[in-house]
Structure formats: structure tokens, C-alpha cells
Amino acid sequence: MHTLMVIGGGFVLLAAFAVAARLGNFSLSSAALGFVPVWFLASVYNLYVGVSTAGYTVAEEMPILVVVFAVPAVAAVFLWWKFNAA
To answer: Domain residue spans in the chain?
Structure first.
């Protein structure tokens, strides 16, 4: 359940980046690309919390990191691809 909430938080953060792009002076494609490293850091922090406080090992948390990072990141890359002004 926690994993789904974190992935949902990733989509909320992606939406915040999209709103910032809409209100700011930059494109949705650049906001989507900017989201990816921020989300990676947040995903790694989630791994750190799982290891340091929940008692999981890094090996146990690594597949969760991949899923938690990949699902919103793939959506962001799709947005970049779809709205890239090439």
C-alpha cells in the first residue's frame, strides 16, 4: 500500500511540475524532463527511509525503488515525447 501511495505522490509531483510550466514561462516538455531527476532523488530518499527506519535491506528495497521511480518517470518521458517542440 505504501508503494502505491508513493507512486501516487510521484504523479502529484508531476502534475505540480505541469502546473508550474503552465503558469511559468517554460514548456511542458522541459517541466517533464526537470521532474525526472527530482523524482529520482525522492525515490532514493524513499529507499533510504525503508532501509534506515523500516528495517529492510538495500537488496529488498532495490526492486521497490525501480518500480517507484519508473512508473511516474515513464509518464514524464511520455509527456516530454508528446509535447516536445522538435
So the answer is: 2-83
CB atoms within 10 A of CB 70: 15
Tally of CA atoms within 13 A in the half-sphere of 11 that contains its CB: 7
The predicted structure's pLDDT at residue 85: 63
Contact 66, 5 (CB under 8 A): no
Upper half-sphere CA count for residue 64 (Cβ side, 13 Å) = 22
The Cβ-side half-sphere exposure at 81, using a 13 Å CA radius, reads 6
Q: How confident is the model at residue 25 (pLDDT cuts 50, 70, 90)?
A: confident
Q: In one letter, which amino acid is 8?
A: G
